[in-house]
Amino acid sequence: MDFKWNQWVLNALFLLAGVAEATVFDVKNYGAQADGMTDISKALVSAWNDSCASVEPTSTVLISRGTYLLGPVILSGPCKSSSIEFQLQGLVRAPPDPALFKTDAWVLFENVKGLKVSGGGILDGQGQRAWTSNNCSANPNCKELPINLKLAYVQNTIIRDIASKNSKYFHIGIFQSSDLTLENLNIYAPGSSPNTDGIHMSSSERINVTNIVIATGDDCISIGPGTRNLNVTKVVCGPGHGISIGSLGKSPGEAEVHGIFVRNCTFTNTLNGARIKTWPSSPVGAASNIVFEDLIMNNAYFPVILDQMYCPHQKCDQERNGSKCWSGFAVPVMGSCRGEGEEEEGDEGERDEADHGEIPFCYVYYQSW
Ligand SMILES: *[C@@H]1O[C@H](CO)[C@@H](O)[C@H](O)[C@H]1NC(C)=O
Ligand SMILES: *[C@@H]1O[C@H](CO)[C@@H](O)[C@H](O)[C@H]1NC(C)=O
Ligand SMILES: *[C@@H]1O[C@H](CO)[C@@H](O)[C@H](O)[C@H]1NC(C)=O
Ligand SMILES: *[C@@H]1O[C@H](CO)[C@@H](O)[C@H](O)[C@H]1NC(C)=O
Ligand SMILES: *[C@@H]1O[C@H](CO)[C@@H](O)[C@H](O)[C@H]1NC(C)=O
Ligand SMILES: *[C@@H]1O[C@H](CO)[C@@H](O)[C@H](O)[C@H]1NC(C)=O
């Protein structure tokens, strides 16, 4: 490369960098301070709104390195920008007091297309105080606690290279969304923290979840009604309650779960491994095309739970409605299953009825079969 050419390339690069910079909406330019004490929620919403209104094809919201305090925020679209990068580089902490949250989310993205969240930062829900006041197991009308990161009506979105810790409730919640990728995430809370599911989803489709390390006090991943075409691979779970489908069929007319592939996941010191649970009166077809394979269980207490009689506290209509709630259900964990859990197999007839038979179970626990 001769000097002139070199200079031209450099100029071009500076020009490109300049263009890129013009579309970066840094919360610090909106008054945010990285002092860990000043609430940056107004600054963040303003930066988001400007980014969302930008007519550039790509715009970036930046929370740079440093420690910030952030109250609940709603980051909503639709946006003019067809692609928004949300660069979370800093450590962002939620206020510990759950009373400061009026809705079920701390950071909510809604009605957005083409969002990319990344940057290596951490969302710290500071859930310790909320966990001690969580009485949801005793009180069915308990106040909803906030999810660290909620996506609602979101499409074509990637969440990668960030961490979520100590959420007051679920860490990541996905509702009415489609075409999502969640990868390279680190999700953690103490094994004793209540309802801190890693990823929960419902009424959503075409989702890839891969390379995620999840250690929580509840399900690593919970898959609710209306989830379709989900691929989960290379998830490392534990402590936690495993990867769970359901509970399904509680209310009539519930959307079915279809096309769930869970592969190459490892469960270490978990309560469960792979679990699916439906209420007894669940109608036919509540779940189909479910595949769990190449799962490694390291000391999972109940590596596989197939429960068609899910009825906590016996408060439900226990009459079983049909036997084929699940079709195409396979759990070939044999070979890679190293569970130490209790073995409590149902008889062949029941097993066939439940899963259309010929499935090489490792350890199966039939709960209230
Ligand atoms: C941001 O946009 C939302 C909805 O578009 C609006 O309700 C809110 O007032 C805006 N907030 C700020 C600080 O600009
Ligand atoms: C649950 O906690 C809330 C708020 O702390 C309280 O008002 C309610 O009485 C509690 N309910 C039970 C059943 O403990
Ligand atoms: C999920 O991954 C598969 C295979 O890598 C890819 O073909 C598909 O487009 C991905 N889907 C989404 C929604 O990113
Ligand atoms: C999941 O993987 C299967 C192949 O195993 C593929 O056909 C399907 O498109 C994938 N789903 C998504 C959402 O990428
Ligand atoms: C699962 O792991 C096996 C062995 O390491 C590999 O051959 C296979 O491609 C992996 N599958 C997925 C979906 O990652
Ligand atoms: C049983 O399933 C059928 C549909 O297959 C539905 O019409 C009926 O309402 C269900 N019964 C109960 C008790 O849920």
UniProtKB/TrEMBL annotation:
Keyword Signal among record annotations: yes
UniProt-listed InterPro entries: Glyco_hydro_28, PbH1, Pectin_lyas_fold, Pectin_lyase_fold/virulence
Residues annotated as the enzyme's active site: H241
Keyword set, alphabetical order: Cell wall, Cell wall biogenesis/degradation, Glycosidase, Hydrolase, Secreted, Signal
Coarse class of the protein's main subcellular location: secreted
Localization in the cell: Secreted, Cell wall
Signal sequence, start to end: 1-22
Coiled-coil regions, chain positions: none
GO biological process, one term: cell wall organization
Domain of life: Eukaryota
Annotated PROSITE patterns: POLYGALACTURONASE
SMART domains cross-referenced by the UniProt entry: PbH1 (SM00710)
GO molecular function term, any single one: polygalacturonase activity
UniProt record similarity statement: Belongs to the glycosyl hydrolase 28 family.
Protein name: Polygalacturonase
The organism of origin for this protein: Protea cynaroides
Lineage: Eukaryota, Viridiplantae, Streptophyta, Embryophyta, Tracheophyta
